[in-house]
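Researcher: For the record, we're logging two predictions in this thread. I'll number them. Prediction 1 follows.
Model: Prediction 1, sequence and structure:
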Amino acid sequence: MFSFLLRSIAFAIILAAQVGAVAPTDEYRDADDRQSSYFDNHNMDPAVVDSAQFGLLWKIPFNAKEQFYAKPLVYTPASTGVQIVFLASSQNYIRTLNAKTGELLLTRQVQTPFLQSDIGCTDIPNTIGIIGTPVIDPNTDIAYFYAKTYIPNFRTAGNTGTFNGVYYFYAVDVKTLQDVPGYPVLVDGSYADNDPRKYFVGGTILQRPSLSKIGNVVYAAFGGHCDLFNYTGTVLGVDVTTQKVVTNFATESGPNSRFSTDWLPNGGGGQAGIWQSGMGLASDGNRMFFVTGNGNGGENQGLPANGASGCRTLAEAVVNLGVDPTTGKVSAIDYFQPYDYINMDGGDQDFGSGGIALLDPTVFKGTGVSRIGVTSGKNGKIYILNADNLGGYKQGQGQTDLVLQTITTNKAVFGGVGSYPLEGGYIYSTPVGYPTSAYKLGFNGAGQPVFTFAGATPEVSAGRVGGGVPTITTFKGQPGTAILWLTDPDAGLRA
């Protein structure tokens, strides 16, 4: 596993002059719950965006060694009516800025950050602190996030070191940046529900995907640092009312998964990390979906298996977790592994370099299909999935993939696929170093959904990772007003 979505050390907030800073335009999480990347509430009028009224409003620089992987969140506390930008950095700083003026309002360093030199992976330079995008609860003005740091002499002698690394789960008031009583919560040492041999060691693992909140539980996913050390992909859930870890799901579990009590060997825990280039877990209520990367399992041993068969070695897989609405615990109910996932492992072609998007079910559906999921990773393929029957392993004709459609691009994606449900329905993909391509929804003779190439941007994305997920806005949800937004580590923001 390598490479992550980088944020510049200088933030630029770009607003249309005719767009007011009102609560309906806030983004208190990285995307919508489904990760569909379509927003109809931003009132972004194409006539304004394509005019001299639209441009850079302000920018602010920070420490040259401070990186921003967590996305800025825009939020308006009801008690103040002042729209703010909430920032979290690799040095464990959290900040609030006035969204209109760029004025720095509050700054706090919540913990000493973990040192990159203690992990040996250069994907994230200098320090590793708050990397996954926080989530804000608009009902309480509380921001939740994970911070990586140390507990001196925790597992080994010394103030730092890989095995003294830990994760704290934070809850802070966005108006004051002070901790909510009872926080932070140390999550290290929690045992996996589905494999009690395995427990959480923060020093060897990375919280990269954006956080999700379902009911009273905040969920976070974890992967590795360059696939180093003994780690297992993990989904943690913390109940914010009891301030306790209520679920710990290991992506590699059971007797066919790797296990070692020595934390040094690479792959000792089976890997199958969840990183998704920062994209969050997708949810449609009582289900969550994610995609894993390289792993060392292989429970199927090349034999076909149904998605509901209970496979417990879930490397290179799309996974559907059921969420118990009472306890918050999660359990695997379905999965999909590409027929060639073992070869993908060998070539470091992480399926999980991108997340999964659940498309608008009122538009993206067809005969026998009521919910569509779309994912794409390093292996140069876009997979169109039936979210209610992901496809298992080698369940298609001739032991191929049982998916709705595979679009072969031969181009790696780091981030995910965006969507637009109006005007017939489209999806968008931005591979590294290539144009953004659009695919239009259609149907075959049996009424089943099929996507066809509709066009591509004249510009190409940067020849390195950092492009993120294509995002689409409309002006008050009106057809014909859609704008495709792209972030690029070289070209900046494109519309």
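Researcher: Logged. Prediction 2.
Model: Prediction 2, sequence and structure:
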Amino acid sequence: DQGEHQFRYALYPHAGDWRQADSYRRGMEFNLPLHPVVVKSPSGGNLPPESALLTTDADHVVLSVFKAVRDIETRPRFAVRVHEVEGRAGEISIRFPFAVARAWRANLMEDLQEELTHEGNIVRVPVTPLQLTTVVVQPSFGQASGE
């Protein structure tokens, strides 16, 4: 290509291997930085100093998608996609901001496959090394979030 090109790069010195250094996470932080925005609240309410929409107990997975599922049913459902990044199989927990009525492992088209174990707002999800895993949840609105 001709003309002027611009790019950004970062060097991240560290001890140990890339897994011990969380290199994938540092790369994502560099490539996808958070852009905070100050919003004036019309109600004057208070928010906690820290909060999360979704959390997981595993440091070797990346939450990459959280979206509404489009299907013909009237019940709302949400899809979550996680990516295992260190080559480790296992079971992880995903904590939602609402109680979960049902949860399924799904394919990339969000077709339901197998039902998953859940309790309150926590879903247990088996992950495969270096693979994407899609989870579909049906909220149980009107129930406590389990926290």
